[in-house]
Write a structure and sequence with these properties.
The structure is a single chain. This protein has 895 residues and is mainly alpha-helical. It contains 39 helices and eight strands. The protein has an eight-stranded parallel barrel with strand order 1-2-3-4-5-6-7-8, surrounded by ten helices. Strand 4, helix 20 and strand 5 form a beta-alpha-beta unit.
């Protein structure tokens, strides 16, 4: 390759900019970036004032043009980096061998397990215990339109084509012209949506990824697993025989917490759309199988089972089929029957589809076509049947505990059971709930009039009841936001009983630092509660009981700061796991991770292995949202790499009990030290955000109010829609989004310096020792190092000074940035924040000057907004939103 993807795309951008009249804007932006590079990130450098004065003198249309070309440049740079990741991974795959497998691949995990003493049987057992459930959410962190995403995907495809070594001159010219046209289209397409997304739009977006990239990638993952096991240990199972180690979930259309747009009807429609998309994919899949399975009974014997199945399901023979031809092509005849059943949607379920496809595989093996059965399109179909069924993804419902409490109080009062349920203490609540759960009678007659909110809640439960009766995989969990006591869970159980909903597991979600600290005791009380254990045992249907627990990474960070959230989550995981072991109940953690470091983002596989050993498991869930979904699932190569890293980590995590080196959890005295440091960090963090001057400054200096107006999702930025925006009401996503826009990224590091500078030399030595033995703190510090490196104090200074009190706020944030940087470098024993990821560090340095241009334009637009009248503000609204979009593209993260 003589030209890098980046060079190819930058040259195409220049041509497209010239073609669309934006060449001068691109040239002007380059000059501004050079001036920002000259300032070198130094706070107070005179070069910043020079760039700001130049931007201040520009008319609005020129600023908008620069925003357009610089944003497009970052979109292309992001795509080039993704293509490079895919290319490097392929090069490493070609260079790998059994003695030196590719890092973080499934093969490397199996090799590590082999070196720990596991044989093929042991590894097969681990695969059987894996149950990885990525969960797509509609949280508002993807600022790009679907049109922009589709254009970027086409640009990536053309870039790959231009790198083909066997391409002819004609093909190269054709693809180069198409690339220029695609980038020109990107330049002249609105980056910002004209109206806010509705829930139906979000459902369609989630289904897009499930039904395209994820659908195509999953069989490749299973083939990787089969091939790796065979290469390392010999005798690996065929991909189609591997258990469903991966299944997808979604919140989109079921997440009611703080989103009044998610109604019972919306939830019903979301499930129907998932089912329709699955059947559409299966129709195409079975059409392909019909073409592929052309073997004739005149040449091979398929056995009696296939003949009997054809006869038993003769009523499903399509009327437009040629029976004479089908007589001698029984595989095709059977595929047509299966396809007809899928089309009819008459109670045919995913397990029925899996059994019928497995029957086809057995017939092929009987005919001596084992290789084709184990490695061809039929094998892929069997994998998809295991993973996606006929529902594509299982929907979760989530609602705030306070909504459940209000509905229950109303119902109990109407039923004459209790007035003032909300005012009862916990003991009285539990006594009442346990009594009502032990009786079979309903609380209310069917025609009773309820308030709109309570009626809507019970209507949603009725939808879930009906859908679960139709397909048990439609909905499996009901998540309780802000769970703080046992009655929150038993109260939901009583509401479910009233609605006739018995097959769903309540899942407590612990979000704030205080709730995380209470969680182990609360879960012990819940698992010890006879009424709840009856429900748990009933769900297990004779098997071992299992309970899911969700941990929130966003509100804990917003509440307590970076180190406090991480330590609280780590300690809670260990303590909760110990409680579950005492009660003999299986535990599945559901990690509510966001895309940014402050909200639990970063490499998911590494985070799994950084959990306390007692809490590690290959049975887990984690959220994927917004720009994270786009980054991981737009391109098949990225999706495959992401999923193999997850399976790699899950295998090692599941093997912890039987193959983990000795050492156990961190010693309790070290944990106590971390808790003390976390409290110190939280104190520093809260002293900033609780300062009475902070919130007015934050609203005035940051673009938070404009983020709220950005039409990127159906959910409001505040939990209290329609009320004044306060720190207590703002959601964690726009909170983090605003800090990223201002280039401070404080949720990803603030308080670390204050905490670690308070530690003595002996304590620092203990921390360094812990870094070498357990990955948790190393992961925390390296994640913080990345956010410290991405922070740009010189730019943050420009934002801070735009509002009253900004000088004091800036000095406090900069001082803590300096302290945190010194502490992280000292503990890690490094002189470079990005020494652990130099490629990422180089990318940060390369991006900074061009990102600075976007920030300085945004600051100027905010200044103009504040001094403009209402009529003038209308003209500024879309450029401001475009600036937010551009900075999000530059930073590759929002909230």
């Amino acid at each position: 390759m003589t030209t890098t993807d980046r060079e190819t795309l930058e040259a195409a951008l220049r041509r497209a900019a010239d073609a669309t009249g934006l060449g001068p804007a691109l040239e002007r932006a380059g000059g501004l970036a050079d001036a920002c590079r000259e300032a070198g990130g130094r706070v107070g450098d005179p070069a910043w004032d020079g760039v700001s004065r130049t931007i201040e003198s520009m008319p609005l249309d020129e600023l908008a043009a620069i925003l357009r070309v610089v944003t497009a440049r970052f979109h292309l740079l992001n795509k080039a980096e993704q293509l490079n990741i895919i290319r490097v991974n392929r090069e490493r795959a070609r260079a790998a061998n059994p003695a030196s497998p590719r890092p973080e691949s499934i093969e490397s995990a199996i090799a590590a397990l082999r070196d720990r003493g596991l044989d093929a049987t042991g590894v097969a057992g681990l695969f059987g215990r894996l149950d990885i459930q990525p969960t797509l959410t509609a949280h508002p962190t993807e600022a790009r339109r679907r049109t922009i995403l589709d254009t970027q995907t086409e640009i990536a495809r053309l870039t790959i084509e231009l790198d083909r070594p066997d391409a002819s001159p004609l093909e190269l010219d054709r693809d180069r012209a198409a690339l220029d046209a695609a980038i020109a289209t990107l330049l002249v397409t609105d980056n910002v949506r004209s109206q806010r997304l509705g829930v139906a739009d979000e459902v369609r977006n989630g289904i897009y990824f499930l039904a395209h990239t994820i659908w195509s990638t999953v069989p490749e993952l299973f083939r990787d697993a089969s091939w790796s096991a065979d290469r390392v240990l010999g005798g690996g199972a065929a991909a189609s025989e591997l258990p469903a180690m991966l299944r997808y979930r979604t919140w989109i259309g079921g997440d009611r917490d703080g989103n009044p747009s998610v109604t019972a009807g919306v939830t019903r429609d979301a499930i129907a759309q998932l089912r329709a998309a699955a059947r559409e994919r299966w129709d195409a899949e079975l059409d392909g199988l019909h073409s592929a399975l052309s073997a004739s009974s005149r040449r091979v014997d398929f056995g009696d089972d296939l003949r009997r199945a054809l006869e038993a399901d003769a009523r499903w023979n399509p009327t437009d089929d040629d029976p004479a031809q089908r007589t001698h092509e029984p595989l095709r005849g059977r595929v047509l029957q299966i396809r007809e059943r899928v089309r009819r949607d008459d109670g045919y379920r995913g397990e029925d589809l899996l059994a019928d496809l497995s029957g086809l595989r057995d017939a092929m093996r009987h005919a001596g076509l084992g290789d084709a059965a184990n490695a061809g399109p039929l094998a892929d179909a069997i994998v998809r049947a295991r993973v996606f069924g006929l529902h594509l993804a299982t929907l979760d419902v989530r609602q705030h505990a306070g909504v459940h409490e209000a509905a229950l109080a109303e119902i109990l009062a109407l039923a004459g059971v209790a007035d003032g349920y909300a005012s009862l203490d916990e003991a009285a609540r539990l006594e009442l709930l346990e009594r009502e759960l032990s009786t079979a009678r309903p609380l209310l007659p069917r025609d009773v009039a309820l308030s709109d909110a309570s009626g809507e809640l019970l209507a949603t439960m009725a939808v879930v009841r009906d859908e679960v009766e139709r397909d048990p995989h439609a909905v499996r969990c009901w998540i309780i936001s802000m769970t703080s006591r046992v009655s929150d869970v038993l109260g939901l159980l009583l509401l479910m009983k009233e609605a006739g909903l018995t097959e769903i597991q309540p899942v407590p979600l612990f979000e704030t630092v205080d709730d995380l600290e209470r969680a182990p005791v609360l879960m012990g009380e819940l698992l010890g509660n006879a009424a709840y254990r009856r429900h748990l045992d009933a769900l297990a249907a004779g098997g071992p009981p299992e309970q899911e627990v969700m941990l929130g990474y966003s509100d804990s960070n917003k509440d307590g700061g970076f180190l406090m959230a991480n330590v609280a989550l780590h300690v809670a995981q260990r303590k909760i796991a110990e409680v579950f072991a005492e009660h003999g109940v299986g535990l599945r953690y559901f990690h509510g991770r966001g895309g940014t470091i402050g909200r639990g983002g970063g490499r998911a596989g590494r985070a799994m292995l950084a959990a306390p050993p007692s809490a590690r498991s290959g049975r887990l869930r984690f959220t994927e949202q917004g720009e994270v979904i786009t980054f991981r699932y737009t391109m098949p190569g990225m999706a495959r790499r992401h999923l193999e890293q997850i399976v790699h980590a899950a295998l090692l995590a599941e093997a912890s009990d039987e193959a983990q080196p000795s050492g156990g959890d961190a010693p309790r005295e070290t944990e106590a030290l971390l808790v003390r440091l976390a409290m110190q960090s939280r104190e520093a963090y809260r002293s900033l955000i609780d300062d009475e001057a902070f919130w007015p400054w934050f609203v005035a200096a940051s673009p938070v109010e404009h983020i709220g107006d950005l039409p990127i999702a159906s959910r409001p930025v505040s939990r209290a829609s329609g009320k004044a925006l306060t720190f207590q009401r703002i959601r964690a996503i726009p909170w983090g989004f605003s800090w990223i826009q201002m280039r401070a990224l404080a949720p990803g590091w603030y308080g670390l310096g204050a905490a670690f500078e308070s530690a003595g030399q002996d304590e620092r030595g203990r921390i360094r020792d812990l870094l070498g033995r357990r990955p948790f703190l190393a992961t925390v510090l390296e994640n913080a190092a990345q956010e410290l490196a991405r922070a740009r104090m010189a730019i943050f200074d420009r934002y801070a000074q735009q509002a009253e009190g900004g000088e004091d706020i800036f000095e406090r944030v900069q001082a803590e940035h300096d302290r945190s940087t010194r502490a992280v470098l000292d503990l890690l024993g490094r002189d470079d924040l990005m020494a652990h990821a130099r490629v990422v560090g180089a990318s940060i340095d390369d991006r900074n000057p061009w990102t600075d241009v976007l920030n300085l334009i945004q600051i100027e637009l905010l200044r103009r907004w504040k001094s403009a009248g209402n009529g003038q503000q209308d003209a500024l609204r879309r450029p401001l939103q475009a600036a937010i979009n551009g900075i999000a593209a530059a930073m590759q993260s929002t909230g």
